[in-house]
Specification:
CATH class of the largest domain in chain A: Alpha Beta
Protein name (chain B): Sarcosine oxidase subunit alpha
Mean pLDDT of chain B: 95
CATH architecture of the largest domain in chain B: 3-Layer(bba) Sandwich
Number of helices of chain B: 21
Shape of chain B: elongated
CATH superfamily of the largest domain in chain A: Probable tRNA modification gtpase trme, domain 1
CATH class of the largest domain in chain B: Alpha Beta
Low-confidence stretches of chain A: none
Number of strands of chain B: 50
Distance between the termini of chain A: 44 Å
Mean pLDDT of chain A: 97
CATH topology of the largest domain in chain A: Gyrase A, domain 2
Strand content of chain B: 25-35%
Largest sheet of chain B: 7 strands, mixed
Number of domains of chain B: 6
Helix content of chain B: 10-25%
Family (chain B): Belongs to the GcvT family.
Keywords (chain B): Oxidoreductase
Strand order of the largest sheet of chain A: 1-2-8-11-10-9
Pfam families (chain B): FAD_oxidored, Fer2_4, GCV_T, GCV_T_C, SO_alpha_A3
Largest interface: A-B, 54 and 67 residues
InterPro entries (chain B): 2Fe-2S-bd_N, BFD-like_2Fe2S-bd_dom_sf, FAD/NAD-bd_sf, GcvT/YgfZ/DmdA, GcvT/YgfZ_C, GcvT_C, GCVT_N, Sarcosine_oxidase_asu
Shape of chain A: globular
CATH architecture of the largest domain in chain A: 2-Layer Sandwich
Order of helices and strands of chain A: EEEHEEEHHEEHEEEH
Largest sheet of chain A: 6 strands, antiparallel
Oligomer: heterodimer
Strand content of chain A: 35-45%
Radius of gyration of chain A: 17 Å
Amino acid sequence: MHDLAPLCALGDSNPRTDSVAGVALTENPGHAFASIAARLGQETACAAQLATLLGGAAPNVGAMVSTNTYMAFWIGPDQWMISAPFDTHEDLAAQLKARFGKSASITDQTDAWVCFHMQGDGVERVMQLCANIDIEQMQVGAATRSVIHYMGVYVIRTAPDALTILGGRSSAGSLHHALLTAMRAAL
Amino acid sequence: MTQKNRLDGGLIDRSETWSFRFDSQYFKGHKGDTLASALLANGVRLMGRSFKYHRPRGPMTAGSEEPNAIVELREGARKEPNTRATTAELYDGLRASSQNRWPSLKFDAMQVNDLLSNFFAAGFYYKTFMWPAAFWEKVYEPIIRHAAGLGSLSLQDDPDGYDKGFLHCDLLIIGGGPAGLAAALTAGESGARVILCDEDFLIGGRLNLETYAVGGMSGAAWAAETVARLQAMPNVRVMSRTTAIGVFDHGVYGAVERVSDHLAVPEDGKPRQILWRITSKRALLCAGATERPIVFENNDRPGIMQASAVRAYANRWATTPAQQVAIFTNNDDGHRTASDLVAKGVEVVSVIDTRADAPTSSDYDVIAGGVIDQTWGRLGLTQIEVKMPKGGIRRITCGALGVSGGWNPNVHLTCHQGGRPVWNEGIAAFVPSGSLPPGMTVAGAARGIFSTHGALHSGADQAKAILSDLGMKVSAPSLPEAEDTPTRITPFWHVKTAKRAWVDQQNDVTAKDIKLAHQENYVSVEHLKRYTTLGMATDQGKTSNIAGLAIMAEVAGKAIPEVGTTMFRPPYTPTAMGVFAGRAWGMETRPTRLTPSHKWAKEQGAVFIEAGLWLRAQWFPQPGETHWRQSCDREVIQTRKSVGICDVTSLGKIDVQGADAAAFLNFVYCNGFAKLPVGKVRYGLMLREDGIVMDDGTAARLAEDHFVVTTTTAKAVPVYRHLEFVRQCLCPDMDVQLISTTDAWAQFAVAGPNSRKLLEKIVDEGVDLSNDAFPFMACGEITICGGLRARLFRISFSGELAYEIAVPTRYGDALVRRLMQTGEEFDVVPYGLEALNVMRIEKGHATANELNGTTTALNLGMGKMLSKTKDSIGSKLSERPGLNEPDALKLVGLKPVKPDHTVPAGAHLMTKGAKVTASNDQGYVTSACYSPNLGCHIALGFLKSGDTRIGEIIRLVSPLTGVDHDVEVVSPHFLDPEGDRLRA
C-alpha cells in the first residue's frame, strides 16, 4: 500500500460541501471512472459485456444506468463512461480490461474528472442558469453532454431533486465557482 | 413637494410612500410608480434635454418607446446612463439625475445650439467638416466627440452580477396584454409548456391602462385574475420585467429579465439582470401597438405627449401632467383619452380633431377639422394655438397636450430575420407580413387587431392553431366579453406649415431635415435614415419612423408602402452591456485550469503565468532573489548540475487504442510509427494537410494496441479535434479509439544528472532504471512509493538525463512533495516555465515560437524525418516547390558577437553590409533568452539557407526596440549537440 495522500479536485484533503437555500453542492471524489469504447466490429460484443455487467442493457443515447456498484452512461456511438466506488475499484480500468478483452478499449478516467453532486429542491432553477439543457424535461436516468461557463460537462439526473455534474478536473475550481454562483443567484 | 397632480384611483399602492431624488430635489411617490409617473404627480414635466439642440423635453410616452425622458439612474458605480424614466420602477431612495445639460436642467448653456439650428440641419457634419482636411483629427473630431453622447459613465466597475440562463418551452408568448393572456390561458389549460414574458412589472398590457370592462370587471382586475390562474399552472412560467430583445435561429429568443432593477441594491448573490436564451417550438408575438404622434410646430415641449400616455398616467398611475389638458387627434382613440380624463376630474380644455366629421361630446369642446399651429412655454407647455377649420387662430391655455396620430403595431421582432411589414390601409399602419421568423405567429394589436375583443380572440385562436400544429389537444377556455370598437382614423401625419416640427425627438430630426434629405437626393429610406439619423437613437425610432416615412412619401410623391421601411434589428430595447457579458468578466472571463502541484507551488511562493487556460509556475523565487532572472538562472544551473522538477501536466495527453492504433499514428505523423516497439517513445511531427507543421510531441507505446500521445499545451485541443476528424472521416475503417487523458494524470519532468538517483529512491522494488534496462526513449508502467501505479517516460526537453513520471492526478501534490523531500540530498530544485524555456533553447528544441503555423519540417531542420516510404497527412503538399526553395529558412542558433548584447525575439536578420529593407530580410528570431551556462544571450531563429551559414556574422536589427548589432550564426544545439547527457 503506497503512502501518498490524495487531494480532492478542489485542492483540499476533504471534499467540499456548500449549501444554499436547501440545495447542497458536494464534491465527490469517491468514484473511479473508466471509458469504454467498442473496438471496430466488436460493437455488439462490447455492448453485451456492458449489459451483463449492468444486469440489463447498455445505456442508450442520452441515458444512464446504475446498479448497486456501477453507474454507466452513454458518451458517444458505442462509447460509455462507467463508474464504481473508488475504494473498491481504484483499478477499475484494469478490471474492465480483463472483462472486456479485445472487445473494447478501456481508459482510466478516474482523475480526469471532478464529480459534483447537487441535491435539493431547486436544482432545476440552478441548472437553468448554468447549461442549455431542457432540465425540466430531463428524466431521472438521463445523461447529457453540455457546457457550463465555457467548460465541457456531463450532467446526469440521478433523482428528481439530484444531479451529478462531471467536469474537467483541472478546472474544478472554475466549475465549482460557476455552480455556486448560480445557486446563489437562483435560489 | 406635494404630489399636486396625483389623481384618485389607479394601480399604485398608496400604503407605501417612498422618497426619491431627481437632480437635487426630493419628491414622494408610491409603490407601483415609475420615475416618470412619480415626477408627473409632483408637477415635474421637464426631465431631460434633447441630443443635438438641448431643447427642454419631458416624457412623450408611458413605456419603453420613450425618446425624451432619459436620465442617469442611481449613483456611484451603479450609475446607469440613458435610462428611460418611463420604465424605471420607483423604489424608496431612488436617485436620478438629468443628463446632457450644463450647468442645470432648467438652464442649459448648450441650448445655444438651438439658436444656431440653421447651421445644424441634416448633413451638417458631412458638409461642414470636409475642409480643411488637417482640421479633422485635431479640431473637429475632439469637438464632436465632446459634444456627442447623452449620459455619462461612472468609469467604475459595475458591482452587480449578471447571469445568462436557458429556458425551453412549447410556446413562447411575448407580451402579456389581452392577446397574450388569452393565448397563455388557452395553451396553458391545454397542457402546453408555456412561457409568457412581458417587459412591464405589472402584466396586463393596456388592460392596466384602460377603463373599459372585461368580463364584467375592470381590465386590470381580469388581467390580475388571469395572471394568478396562469401562475398556478405548473406548465406555465409567467415572467414579468422580461423583454424579448431578439429573434435568432431555430426558435431561439433572447430575453432580458430585470431581476433587481426595481431595487436599490440586488439581494445578496442575486443578479441585476438575466439574459435568457429561450428555445421555443413556437412563438406568439403579442407585443401590442404604439401610438404615434402628429408632427407640428414646436411639438416637443414638455407636456406634449401621446394621448394614450396621458390616459395611461391617469388610469394606472393616477397622475396627470397638468390640470388642463388638450387633445390633438386624427382618430377616435383621442376621444377615449378625453373621456377618461374627464372621468378622472381633469379639465379637458379642447379636443382638436383633424377630421371634419369628428365625433362630438357633451363633456368637452371639440374642434373638428382644426390643427395645432403653434405651441408656447419655455420649459413646459403653457398654451397652444389652433388653426380653426374656418380660418383664424384660437389660443388655448393648457399644461399638457395629448396627441394621437393612430397606432402602429409593434412589428419589430417580426423583422429580426429579414421580414418586411406590409401596409394596412384600414388602420393606416404597417402590419406583419407573411415572411415571419420560422415558428412565429402574431396576434392582437401587433397584428393590427386593436379592439380588446379582437385581441382576446386573436390570441386564443392563434394559440389553438399553434397547439394543433404541434399535435397537441386543445382545451379552449371561455373568453370574457369585451369592447369591440372599430378603428376610425383619417391619416394626418404633419402640419405642413410647420417650420420647426420634430419627427424623431431623441435624435432631433425635424420634418424640414427629411425634406432636405429628399432635396439632396437621399430618397432611399435607408439613405434617409443615415443622412438624417432618423430612427437611429436608442429608441430605434419607435415613435418617429412612420411619421418620417410619411413625410418622405409626401415630398417624393409616393405612397408610404412604396417608400418602405428600414430594418429593425436586435435588441428591441436598449440593453445593458453587462448582461451580454454575464458572469464572464474579470478573473471569471474564462475558466482557469490548475496543475496538480498548484497548491504546493503556491506554498513555495511561485510566480504563475497564464499558458492558455492553465496557470503554470513561471519561477520559484528564493529569499534574497529580487529579479526573476536570478530565480531562473539558479533553477537552470541547479537542474543541469544536479536535478530539477517541473510540472508538465498541461501538455496534452491522448489515449490511442485499437488494433490499428500504430497504423493510425503512422498516418497522422509524418515520421514512422508503425514499427515503434512496445516500451518505447518516439518524437513525432504532425503536419497539416498543407504540409505546414501542426504540432509536435511524443507517442509512447504501452502495448501493441495502446499508445499515449502527448501534444504541446497550446495544441492539446486542436490536435485531439484533428485526430477525431481523421479517425471518423478519413479512416473510418481503422480500429482506433481516442480519449483525452490530460487531466487524468499528473506528470512531472525530473531532469538533471541526478534524476535517475532521485527516482530510484521512490520507484518500487524491481523497477530497474539503469541505462540498459530503461534507456533513452524508454517508457513503461511501474509502481512507486509502495504500490501506486505510475507511468515513466525517459524523454528530455532540457537535454539532460531526464524522465517524465505520471501518477493519477489526485496523487500529484503528494508526489511533488515526496520528490522534493527525497531529493534534498541532491539539492533538488523545482523549476518553472522560464527555466524550462532557457534549457530547451540551449538544447535547440522547438516550441510554439518555432511551430508558428508557417514553418515546415524542412525549416525546422527535420526534413529528413519526413518519411518518403509511406503516406501521411501533409507529406505530399510539403513537397511543394515553394516550400523547398534552395534558400529556404532553416533553424539556426544565434549568439551576439559582443557577449553583453541581447538577441531579442522578433528581431530580423540582415546580411552584413546590406541595407535594412524588407526585401533584404534574411530571417527572424523566434526564441531568445539569457543562458547562464553560456554566460550570454542566445537565440533560435530562422535564417535563409541557415544550415550552410554556420559561423557567418550577420546583422540583427529591431527598429522597434532600437537594436542593431552583429550576431554569429551557430548550431541551434548550444549545449551537448551529440546528446551524451540525455543518454547518460
